Amino acid sequence: MIEFQVPGMGKVEIKNVVFDLNGTLSMNGTISQDVEKKIRQLSQRVNVFILSSDTRGNLKELAEKLGVNYRRVSSSPESAAKEKFVEELGSENTIAVGNGKNDELMLKKAKLGIAVVGEEGACSSAILNADIIVINPLHALELIMDPQKIVATLRC
After folding, report:
1. Where are the beta strands (DSSP E) in 93-131?
2. Could you read off the pLDDT of 71-125 as tens digits, one per residue?
3. Using CA atoms, how far apart are residues 105 and 83, in angstroms rounded to an integer?
4. Would you list the domain boundaries of the chain?
5. How far apart are CA 126 and CA 67, in angstroms?
6. Would you call 49 exposed, middle or buried from its count of C-beta atoms within 10 A (0-12, 13-18, 19+)?
7. What is the pLDDT of residue 124?
8. Is the pLDDT of residue 136 over 90?
9. Hey, which CATH number is domain 2-154, 3.40.225.10, 3.40.50.1000, 3.90.470.20, 3.40.50.150?
10. Are β-strands 94-98 and 112-116 bridged in parallel, bridged antiparallel, or unpaired?
11. CA torsion sign, 58 to 80 to 15 to 127?
């Protein structure tokens, strides 16, 4: 578990981190070694999940390589399915990380939503529903692993 206190927001207890795959964690179907290393470290502290419509067909392979849980999202609309997944996990104890239109609802539903504006860009509605915006997945992971950065960003 990751715990921290944000002035104006209160105590935060994170048990789960949910990532979108394509455009968020992976670029052109691959995950960098640095991101892979950080995900392995993070999974020692919280439950890590990857949600994806599996555009590139490698969700299972990447999730197994990382040693994390995964779910292929196939119901339409995908955004509602991702939101429901976060809700089922317990939104008060979950961080969601994404970049696309289909991530906007899970970013809003989670206790903390992080939008990644990587090489693929980010949908404006994902950005508007996020609490924090970063420029790549490594920065998102470093933020989660060092919650004092979150505190510094979100304090009132």
Report:
1. 94-98, 112-116
2. 999 877 889 999 999 999 999 999 999 999 999 999 999 999 999 998 889 999 9
3. 5
4. 2-154
5. 27
6. buried
7. 96
8. yes
9. 3.40.50.1000
10. parallel
11. positive
Helix 137-145 and helix 33-42, axial crossing angle in degrees, nearest 10: 30
The residues with which 12 forms a beta bridge, in sequence order, are 4
Spatial separation of the C-alpha atoms in residues 129 and 135, rounded to whole Å: 16
Compute CA distances 17 → 8, 28, 78, 144, whole Å. 22, 22, 18, 9
Per this entry, what is the length of the chain? Answer: 156
6 three-class SS: strand
pLDDT reported for residue 119 = 87
Strands, E assignment, the chain: 2-6, 10-14, 16-20, 47-52, 69-72, 94-98, 112-116, 132-134
